[in-house]
Amino acid sequence: MAKVEVKVAMVDPIWDQVMKEAQAAVVHEPSMGGLIQACILNHRTIEKALSYRIAAKLASNEMSMVILHEITDEAFSCEPELVMAAKCDLVAVHQRDPASHRLLQPILYFKGYQAVQAFRVGHWLWQQNRKDLSYFFQMRISEIFGVDIHPAARIGKGIMIDHAHSIVIGETARIGNDVSMLHSVTLGGTGKEKEVRHPKIDDGVLIGAGAKVLGNITVGRCSRIAAGSVVLEDVPPCKTVAGIPARIVGEAGCDQPAILMDHMLGKDY
Fold it and tell me: Nearest 5 degrees, angle CA 82-CA 84-CA 88?
């Protein structure tokens, strides 16, 4: 008896929702039809759309969109983890940013989301020992988005960078899952050390606007760093630190500060 092959269509509820929102957006604003068609509706999957979007944003006279599109396509095809991270980041931004009313928005308009996805491709290139190309990605991400992340840095999933202006993340920095940060955050070093010289940010940390976390230190899981703080020492889990230099001023205030995005220090402080 001959075998009958049954092909099961893969269901992606996230991408299906993005497509529905894109179709509705074109009906509501026909003048956006060309952009939305090119960036969303022409693609069957989120990775194909992101590949196109990243290439379009980073293209320049020095590197054509065609070449960049081939590179980003290769990265997403070879590393399924990039696709999973992109979806986790998209949901994180949509859930945590009150300015995000549709899943469509971060892909089209939010430079924090776009910069992180472009970084992930650059990091993949770094891991493939294609370092000059990864440095090119770093340069263009910095020029276009105002976000400077070294391609060797390690960043988990479910990341939300709100506003994403003047973000700096150093070479040996490590960021866990479900981390949120606002604009003008620096994860930097304190000197010219050659080994690990940048912070480790554990899962679920919330970093306020303008905060500087410097040196080979660890910020414990589900902690909060108040806006404008300068952190130079380890932060225990589930604490809030504030000030210059930063000191513990209380508990984190909730189980998941990076998800709830609660920056208030409370009456005690």
Answer: 115
* Tens-binned pLDDT, residue by residue, of the chain (269 aa): 555 554 455 689 999 999 999 999 999 999 999 999 999 999 999 999 999 999 999 999 999 999 999 999 999 999 999 999 999 999 999 999 999 999 999 999 999 999 999 999 999 999 999 999 999 999 999 999 999 999 999 999 999 999 999 999 999 999 999 999 999 999 999 887 778 999 999 999 999 999 999 999 999 999 999 999 999 999 999 999 999 999 999 998 888 999 988 777 666 55
**Tokens coding 40:** 């969303």
Measure the CA–CA gap between 204 and 209, rounded to whole angstroms.
Answer: 16
Helix (H) or strand (E) holding 241: strand 239-242
* C-alpha dist (Å) from residue 159 to 32, 220, 247: 28, 16, 25
Residues 6+ apart with CB under 8 A from 82: 47, 75, 76, 120, 121, 124
Give the sheet arrangement for strand 186-188, strand by strand: 147-149, 167-169, 186-188, 212-214, 230-231
- Bridge pairing between strands 239-242 and 247-251: antiparallel
The closest of 195, 225, 194 to 208, measured between CA atoms, is 225
Q: What is the pTM of this model?
A: 0.93
Residue of 262, 260, 243, 240 lying closest to 251 (CA atoms):
240
Contact between 193 and 175 under an 8 Å Cβ cutoff? The reply is no
Query: Other C-beta atoms within 10 Å of 17: how many?
Result: 14
